[in-house]
Amino acid sequence: MESAVISVMDSLINSEEVKGVLIADEHGLCLGAKGTVNPSSAGFISAIATHAKSLHNDSNIQAPIIKIETEKLTILIQNNGNYTIAVFK
Fold first, then answer.
1. Which domain does 72 fall in, by range?
2. What is the pTM of this model?
3. Number of folded domains in the chain?
4. Which of 33, 67, 76, 86 is the most exposed place for a label (fewest CB within 10 A)?
5. Is residue 71 exposed (0-12), middle (13-18) or buried (19+ Cβ within 10 Å)?
């Protein structure tokens, strides 16, 4: 599993304009972080994604992608069941 997490993070961090990537498990534990990401934010990011996912009851709908924008940064967050991915641009 660890090599899969590293592979996903490497792939995303090498994408254009990506400044950081964070992957957390379903409990908010940081599984990996690269770039300008604070690993201690994993719990908050996981909670945001979990709450957004609970807004609809239809399991056939893809989990929502949350977009947080500031003047300097955009964060894209999505929960995919057992893990949450956040991409910082």
1. 1-88
2. 0.87
3. 1
4. 67
5. exposed
Question: 23 vs 43, 62, 71, 75, CA distance in Å?
Answer: 10, 18, 23, 13
pLDDT in tens, the chain (89 residues): 577 777 887 888 888 899 999 999 989 999 999 999 999 999 999 999 988 888 877 777 788 899 999 999 999 999 988 899 999 99
Which residues fall within 8 angstroms of residue 22, CB to CB, at 6 or more apart? 30, 32, 33, 37, 39, 41, 42, 45, 85, 86, 88
Residue with tokens 């400044």: 19
The DSSP-derived string for 45-88 is HHHHHHHHHTT---TTSPPPEEEEE-SS-EEEEEE-SSEEEEEE
Picking from 48, 38, 43, 40, the residue whose alpha carbon sits closest to that of residue 27 is 43
